[in-house]
Amino acid sequence: MLRLGDHLLDLSKPRIMGILNLTPDSFSDGGLYLDPERALLRAKAMVAEGADLLDLGAESTRPGAEPVPVEEEKRRLLPVLEAVLSLGVPVSVDTRKPEVAEEALKLGAHLLNDVTGLRDERMLALAARYGVPAVIMHMPVPDPRTMMAHAHYGDVVAEVRAFLKAQAERALKAGVPQVVLDPGFGFGKLLPHNLALLRHLEAIVELGHPVLVGLSRKRMIGELTGVEAPQERVFGSVAAHLYAAMKGARLLRVHDVKAHREALLVWEALWG
Protein backbone atom coordinates (compact mmCIF):
# COMPACT_ATOMS: atom_id res chain seq x y z
CA MET A 1 0.00 0.00 0.00
CA LEU A 2 1.09 3.56 -0.72
CA ARG A 3 -0.58 6.16 1.46
CA LEU A 4 -1.21 9.37 -0.46
CA GLY A 5 -3.13 11.68 1.85
CA ASP A 6 -6.65 10.29 2.15
CA HIS A 7 -5.96 7.87 -0.71
CA LEU A 8 -4.61 4.38 -0.11
CA LEU A 9 -3.13 3.01 -3.34
CA ASP A 10 -3.13 -0.79 -3.46
CA LEU A 11 0.12 -1.88 -5.10
CA SER A 12 -0.71 -5.57 -5.27
CA LYS A 13 -0.92 -4.87 -9.01
CA PRO A 14 0.70 -2.26 -11.28
CA ARG A 15 -0.81 1.21 -11.21
CA ILE A 16 -0.78 3.91 -13.89
CA MET A 17 0.65 7.38 -13.27
CA GLY A 18 -0.51 9.77 -16.00
CA ILE A 19 1.99 12.41 -17.12
CA LEU A 20 0.85 16.03 -17.39
CA ASN A 21 3.65 18.30 -18.62
CA LEU A 22 2.94 22.00 -18.14
CA THR A 23 5.98 23.01 -20.18
CA PRO A 24 6.79 24.51 -23.58
CA ASP A 25 9.77 22.22 -24.16
CA SER A 26 9.18 18.67 -22.93
CA PHE A 27 10.51 16.14 -25.45
CA SER A 28 7.15 14.60 -26.31
CA ASP A 29 4.29 17.00 -25.58
CA GLY A 30 5.93 20.35 -24.90
CA GLY A 31 3.54 23.27 -25.32
CA LEU A 32 0.35 21.21 -25.52
CA TYR A 33 -0.84 21.90 -21.98
CA LEU A 34 0.58 25.30 -21.09
CA ASP A 35 -2.97 26.69 -21.06
CA PRO A 36 -4.53 25.78 -17.68
CA GLU A 37 -7.90 24.93 -19.22
CA ARG A 38 -6.34 22.53 -21.71
CA ALA A 39 -4.25 21.02 -18.93
CA LEU A 40 -7.34 20.38 -16.80
CA LEU A 41 -9.16 18.80 -19.74
CA ARG A 42 -6.17 16.50 -20.31
CA ALA A 43 -6.11 15.57 -16.63
CA LYS A 44 -9.82 14.72 -16.72
CA ALA A 45 -9.31 12.63 -19.84
CA MET A 46 -6.49 10.62 -18.25
CA VAL A 47 -8.61 9.95 -15.16
CA ALA A 48 -11.47 8.79 -17.39
CA GLU A 49 -9.05 6.51 -19.28
CA GLY A 50 -7.99 4.84 -16.04
CA ALA A 51 -5.08 6.77 -14.51
CA ASP A 52 -4.66 5.85 -10.84
CA LEU A 53 -2.71 9.03 -10.10
CA LEU A 54 -1.38 12.02 -12.01
CA ASP A 55 2.12 13.51 -12.14
CA LEU A 56 2.33 17.25 -12.82
CA GLY A 57 5.57 18.91 -13.86
CA ALA A 58 6.30 22.47 -14.98
CA GLU A 59 10.00 22.17 -15.83
CA SER A 60 11.43 19.93 -18.53
CA THR A 61 14.23 17.64 -17.39
CA ARG A 62 15.06 16.22 -20.82
CA PRO A 63 18.81 15.98 -21.56
CA GLY A 64 20.26 19.46 -21.96
CA ALA A 65 17.15 21.25 -20.66
CA GLU A 66 17.68 24.70 -19.24
CA PRO A 67 16.38 25.33 -15.70
CA VAL A 68 13.18 27.31 -15.19
CA PRO A 69 13.10 30.18 -12.66
CA VAL A 70 11.24 29.35 -9.46
CA GLU A 71 8.49 31.92 -9.98
CA GLU A 72 7.85 30.79 -13.55
CA GLU A 73 7.60 27.16 -12.47
CA LYS A 74 5.11 28.17 -9.78
CA ARG A 75 3.10 30.22 -12.28
CA ARG A 76 2.76 27.24 -14.60
CA LEU A 77 2.14 24.62 -11.93
CA LEU A 78 0.11 25.90 -9.03
CA PRO A 79 -3.18 26.95 -10.72
CA VAL A 80 -3.37 23.64 -12.58
CA LEU A 81 -2.47 21.66 -9.47
CA GLU A 82 -5.23 23.36 -7.49
CA ALA A 83 -7.77 22.47 -10.19
CA VAL A 84 -6.55 18.89 -10.66
CA LEU A 85 -6.70 18.17 -6.93
CA SER A 86 -10.49 18.33 -7.23
CA LEU A 87 -10.63 15.30 -9.56
CA GLY A 88 -10.53 12.72 -6.80
CA VAL A 89 -7.24 10.98 -7.64
CA PRO A 90 -3.85 11.35 -5.96
CA VAL A 91 -1.59 13.98 -7.49
CA SER A 92 2.20 13.88 -7.64
CA VAL A 93 4.36 16.94 -8.26
CA ASP A 94 7.49 16.55 -10.36
CA THR A 95 9.92 19.23 -9.20
CA ARG A 96 13.50 19.53 -7.99
CA LYS A 97 13.02 22.93 -6.32
CA PRO A 98 12.16 23.06 -2.60
CA GLU A 99 10.44 26.43 -3.05
CA VAL A 100 8.06 24.95 -5.63
CA ALA A 101 7.60 21.72 -3.69
CA GLU A 102 6.56 23.59 -0.55
CA GLU A 103 3.87 25.60 -2.34
CA ALA A 104 2.56 22.42 -3.98
CA LEU A 105 2.45 20.57 -0.68
CA LYS A 106 0.63 23.47 0.96
CA LEU A 107 -2.06 23.14 -1.72
CA GLY A 108 -2.39 19.43 -0.97
CA ALA A 109 -0.14 17.51 -3.38
CA HIS A 110 0.07 13.87 -2.30
CA LEU A 111 3.47 12.76 -3.60
CA LEU A 112 6.81 14.48 -4.19
CA ASN A 113 8.65 13.30 -7.32
CA ASP A 114 12.26 14.54 -7.26
CA VAL A 115 14.42 13.60 -10.25
CA THR A 116 17.55 14.59 -8.33
CA GLY A 117 16.98 11.78 -5.84
CA LEU A 118 16.34 13.85 -2.71
CA ARG A 119 19.94 15.04 -2.65
CA ASP A 120 18.77 18.39 -1.25
CA GLU A 121 18.21 18.25 2.51
CA ARG A 122 15.38 20.76 2.13
CA MET A 123 13.39 18.32 0.00
CA LEU A 124 13.81 15.63 2.64
CA ALA A 125 12.63 18.02 5.33
CA LEU A 126 9.56 19.05 3.31
CA ALA A 127 8.43 15.48 2.63
CA ALA A 128 8.88 14.66 6.31
CA ARG A 129 7.10 17.80 7.56
CA TYR A 130 4.09 17.33 5.29
CA GLY A 131 4.03 13.56 5.77
CA VAL A 132 4.06 12.70 2.07
CA PRO A 133 5.91 9.88 0.32
CA ALA A 134 8.67 10.79 -2.12
CA VAL A 135 9.94 9.32 -5.36
CA ILE A 136 13.72 8.93 -5.34
CA MET A 137 15.11 8.80 -8.87
CA HIS A 138 18.65 8.05 -9.94
CA MET A 139 20.67 10.24 -12.21
CA PRO A 140 24.44 10.48 -11.95
CA VAL A 141 24.49 14.24 -11.31
CA PRO A 142 21.61 16.49 -10.21
CA ASP A 143 21.62 18.58 -13.41
CA PRO A 144 19.84 17.52 -16.63
CA ARG A 145 22.08 19.87 -18.63
CA THR A 146 25.17 17.76 -17.96
CA MET A 147 23.85 14.33 -16.96
CA MET A 148 24.59 12.65 -20.31
CA ALA A 149 28.26 13.57 -19.98
CA HIS A 150 28.31 11.31 -16.90
CA ALA A 151 26.83 8.20 -18.55
CA HIS A 152 29.77 6.03 -17.49
CA TYR A 153 29.36 3.01 -15.22
CA GLY A 154 31.36 -0.02 -14.21
CA ASP A 155 28.22 -1.93 -13.23
CA VAL A 156 25.16 0.21 -13.85
CA VAL A 157 22.75 -2.07 -11.98
CA ALA A 158 24.91 -2.25 -8.87
CA GLU A 159 25.65 1.48 -8.89
CA VAL A 160 22.02 2.55 -9.36
CA ARG A 161 20.89 0.06 -6.72
CA ALA A 162 23.45 1.34 -4.22
CA PHE A 163 22.42 4.97 -4.77
CA LEU A 164 18.72 4.23 -4.38
CA LYS A 165 19.30 2.09 -1.29
CA ALA A 166 21.39 4.79 0.39
CA GLN A 167 18.97 7.60 -0.46
CA ALA A 168 15.97 5.56 0.70
CA GLU A 169 17.61 4.88 4.05
CA ARG A 170 18.54 8.54 4.40
CA ALA A 171 14.98 9.66 3.59
CA LEU A 172 13.32 7.28 6.02
CA LYS A 173 15.77 8.28 8.75
CA ALA A 174 14.85 11.93 8.10
CA GLY A 175 11.16 11.14 8.67
CA VAL A 176 9.84 10.70 5.13
CA PRO A 177 6.96 8.22 5.65
CA GLN A 178 7.45 6.12 2.49
CA VAL A 179 9.69 6.14 -0.57
CA VAL A 180 9.26 5.01 -4.16
CA LEU A 181 12.35 4.08 -6.18
CA ASP A 182 12.88 5.05 -9.82
CA PRO A 183 15.98 3.78 -11.72
CA GLY A 184 15.86 6.89 -13.92
CA PHE A 185 15.74 5.40 -17.40
CA GLY A 186 17.39 7.80 -19.85
CA PHE A 187 18.68 10.13 -17.15
CA GLY A 188 22.44 9.98 -17.64
CA LYS A 189 22.13 6.54 -19.22
CA LEU A 190 22.70 5.17 -22.72
CA LEU A 191 20.75 2.35 -24.34
CA PRO A 192 22.96 -0.48 -22.95
CA HIS A 193 22.56 0.97 -19.44
CA ASN A 194 18.79 1.23 -19.81
CA LEU A 195 18.50 -2.33 -21.10
CA ALA A 196 20.65 -3.70 -18.27
CA LEU A 197 18.53 -1.92 -15.67
CA LEU A 198 15.30 -3.18 -17.19
CA ARG A 199 16.55 -6.76 -17.54
CA HIS A 200 17.67 -6.75 -13.90
CA LEU A 201 14.91 -4.62 -12.41
CA GLU A 202 14.42 -7.21 -9.68
CA ALA A 203 17.66 -5.91 -8.11
CA ILE A 204 15.81 -2.65 -7.38
CA VAL A 205 12.51 -4.34 -6.47
CA GLU A 206 14.32 -6.47 -3.88
CA LEU A 207 15.13 -3.34 -1.86
CA GLY A 208 11.56 -3.58 -0.59
CA HIS A 209 10.10 -0.25 -1.74
CA PRO A 210 7.60 0.34 -4.56
CA VAL A 211 9.38 0.76 -7.89
CA LEU A 212 8.33 3.33 -10.48
CA VAL A 213 9.33 2.91 -14.12
CA GLY A 214 9.06 5.70 -16.68
CA LEU A 215 9.92 4.59 -20.22
CA SER A 216 7.03 6.30 -21.98
CA ARG A 217 7.95 7.51 -25.49
CA LYS A 218 11.62 7.82 -24.51
CA ARG A 219 14.60 7.78 -26.83
CA MET A 220 15.34 4.20 -25.76
CA ILE A 221 12.02 3.14 -27.31
CA GLY A 222 12.85 5.01 -30.50
CA GLU A 223 16.30 3.43 -30.68
CA LEU A 224 14.82 -0.06 -30.36
CA THR A 225 11.92 0.45 -32.78
CA GLY A 226 13.26 2.97 -35.26
CA VAL A 227 10.29 5.26 -34.56
CA GLU A 228 11.53 8.85 -34.68
CA ALA A 229 8.48 10.80 -33.45
CA PRO A 230 8.03 10.44 -29.67
CA GLN A 231 4.23 10.61 -29.99
CA GLU A 232 4.31 7.47 -32.16
CA ARG A 233 6.26 5.33 -29.68
CA VAL A 234 3.13 4.05 -27.95
CA PHE A 235 3.42 0.34 -28.79
CA GLY A 236 7.07 0.11 -27.79
CA SER A 237 6.33 1.97 -24.56
CA VAL A 238 3.54 -0.46 -23.66
CA ALA A 239 5.78 -3.46 -24.36
CA ALA A 240 8.58 -2.11 -22.17
CA HIS A 241 6.21 -1.27 -19.34
CA LEU A 242 4.58 -4.70 -19.39
CA TYR A 243 8.04 -6.23 -19.08
CA ALA A 244 8.73 -3.90 -16.14
CA ALA A 245 5.48 -4.99 -14.53
CA MET A 246 6.51 -8.63 -14.91
CA LYS A 247 9.77 -7.74 -13.16
CA GLY A 248 7.91 -6.19 -10.23
CA ALA A 249 7.40 -2.50 -11.07
CA ARG A 250 4.24 -1.22 -9.43
CA LEU A 251 3.98 2.34 -10.79
CA LEU A 252 4.15 2.99 -14.52
CA ARG A 253 4.58 6.65 -15.50
CA VAL A 254 2.96 7.04 -18.93
CA HIS A 255 1.65 9.51 -21.48
CA ASP A 256 -0.80 7.10 -23.14
CA VAL A 257 -3.09 5.98 -20.34
CA LYS A 258 -5.76 4.17 -22.37
CA ALA A 259 -3.27 1.95 -24.21
CA HIS A 260 -1.53 1.00 -20.98
CA ARG A 261 -4.77 0.35 -19.10
CA GLU A 262 -6.03 -2.03 -21.78
CA ALA A 263 -2.68 -3.83 -21.98
CA LEU A 264 -2.53 -4.21 -18.20
CA LEU A 265 -6.07 -5.61 -18.04
CA VAL A 266 -5.11 -8.36 -20.48
CA TRP A 267 -1.78 -8.98 -18.74
CA GLU A 268 -3.46 -9.20 -15.33
CA ALA A 269 -6.04 -11.68 -16.64
CA LEU A 270 -3.26 -13.90 -17.97
CA TRP A 271 -0.68 -13.53 -15.20
CA GLY A 272 -2.71 -12.44 -12.21
UniProtKB/TrEMBL annotation:
Catalyzed reactions: (7,8-dihydropterin-6-yl)methyl diphosphate + 4-aminobenzoate = 7,8-dihydropteroate + diphosphate
UniProt KW keywords: Folate biosynthesis, Magnesium, Metal-binding, Transferase
SUPFAM superfamilies: Dihydropteroate synthetase-like
GO CC field: cytosol
Annotated EC: 2.5.1.15
Domain of life (superkingdom): Bacteria
Family: Belongs to the DHPS family.
Protein name (database record): Dihydropteroate synthase
Top-level taxonomy: Bacteria, Thermotogati, Deinococcota, Deinococci, Thermales
